[in-house]
Write a sequence for this structure.
């Protein structure tokens, strides 16, 4: 079973707009990671945020973590066509095994 | 630095056969994890190896097995293939335990069972 659940399942935005997706998980975690997958570059790591961190930035990406609500969000600012991909959150609930959510499919329209 | 490589990239097998997939991690990475990705179940953790020892195992039947060699290269084997084993098998390497460190994924092996 999957520990994390992303919301929404799919998102379509105009180039230049921001995209926000959320991840909720069931049990306490040590770390949460976000990954992106597209047909061209496969599965790529975006950000790792630890349970004692609340926010992390990487370029146009911003990740927040709220351990009290067991949720995380990924914000992509000023989206580009190259951001079209599926985005997954992954948590390490038990023995640091990574458990992936079902993903959010993001389509950026020109 | 060369990325994670997986061979073969595509494979077609028939039910009942067995298959071995190979993964070469990034130089210096001692942890290798394997995942199965299907449209229905998504990305599921198979197992993780660190310094030739299996550190973690997912909820898969015993037909799925793996090993890691002293040079950190890893193989996974699936015996008595079933139609439901058709999937993209991804290998990832990292400096340490998969949950604590970022994973670098290979391109995957697309397995089709007929």
């Amino acid at each position: 079973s999957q520990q994390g659940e992303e919301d929404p399942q799919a998102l379509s935005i105009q180039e230049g707009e921001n995209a926000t997706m959320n991840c909720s998980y069931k049990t306490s975690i040590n770390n949460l990671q976000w990954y992106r997958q597209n047909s061209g570059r496969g599965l790529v790591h975006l950000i790792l945020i630890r349970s004692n961190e609340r926010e992390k930035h990487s370029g146009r990406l911003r990740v927040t973590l709220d351990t009290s609500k067991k949720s995380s969000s990924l914000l992509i600012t000023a989206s580009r066509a190259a951001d079209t991909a599926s985005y997954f959150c992954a948590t390490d609930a038990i023995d640091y095994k990574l458990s992936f959510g079902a993903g959010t499919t993001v389509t950026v329209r020109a | 630095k060369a990325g994670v490589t997986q061979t073969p990239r595509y494979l077609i097998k028939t039910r009942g056969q067995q298959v071995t997939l190979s993964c070469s991690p990034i130089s210096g990475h001692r942890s290798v994890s394997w995942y199965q990705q299907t449209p229905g179940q998504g990305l599921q953790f198979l197992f993780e190896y660190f310094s030739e020892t299996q550190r973690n195992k997912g909820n898969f039947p015993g037909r799925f097995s793996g090993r890691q060699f002293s040079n950190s290269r890893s193989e996974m084997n699936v015996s008595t293939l079933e139609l439901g084993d058709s999937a993209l098998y991804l290998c990832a390497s990292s400096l340490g335990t998969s949950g604590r460190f970022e994973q670098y994924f290979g391109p995957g092996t697309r397995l089709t069972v007929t």
Q: What stands out?
A: The interface with chain B takes residues 2, 30-31, 33, 35, 42-45, 48, 88, 90-92, 95-103 of chain A (CB under 8 Å). The first strand of chain A starts at residue 4 and ends at 7. Chain A has no helices and eleven strands.
